[in-house]
Amino acid sequence: MFDAKEQRSSTLHPIEETSIIEEQFVQARYREEELTSSYGSHTLAFFGLAPENLHFLSPDGAGLVNYRLTSNVAVVLGDPVCAPQDVERVMHSFLDFCAEHKWHVAFYQTYPQYLNVYRDLKMHAFKMGEEAMLNPQTFTLKGSALANVRTSCRRAEREGVTIQWYEGVPPTEVIQQLEKLSNAWLKHKASASETGFSVGRLDELSTVAERADTIAARSRPSASSQSSAKKIVPRFLTAVALTSTGAPCAFMTFTPVYSSSTNADDSSESTGWGWTLDIMRRTP
Description:
This protein has seven helices and nine strands. The radius of gyration is 23 Å and the shape is globular. 34% of the residues lie in helices and 19% in strands.
């Protein structure tokens, strides 16, 4: 026999149930950001956190797959966000999840080191292009191949063009100036429009910069932390080109690329972090 009082005591009030769901969402979001800051070395990993995307957390919480559902196709943004040794297991979980929903799966912009894993899972690779990687510490404009770039740089210097950098959310007045510049650029480019998914949107600049700031703040070691490892967490960057009169004439944004986590016993500084060039706009 089931006591009515016991039944009442085990029934959640709608407000309590909503609170639990919200708490679960916050915990899942925190884990997604934690995985991204630890293993988001793919140039599209940060884009995957956009709220318009869907986020699959593996049952054990070891990995994250960011995707968007189009008809019955789950289009995944980059490789799974997890430790390298967990990639195959996380992919297995995600593919099983998609099979349950009778979805097809496509991974967009995967890295070469995981191609064998995809093939082992009966997936096929199609090369669409290559991604340029530059090391700012060694990059140079020397050489005949970059002669035109050097010429453009010298002309900009003669005309008094300077670059103003903003880390995090730019000031409101700067964002307003960039919006005017962007609108003029989009109007001039008849076929151009804001897209999203694997590239940013100017109307989301503040939100995206705040998201990067949140991840950076959570990734800082606490004062009580016993780890001596120094982890560098990049923030969102905006570069604005100014004419000699101080008016914006072009801008670029850079989204964070996170380094893979160092071994817990390794006190050396982690490497591999950087930025992905995202939005580029200029006066027509």
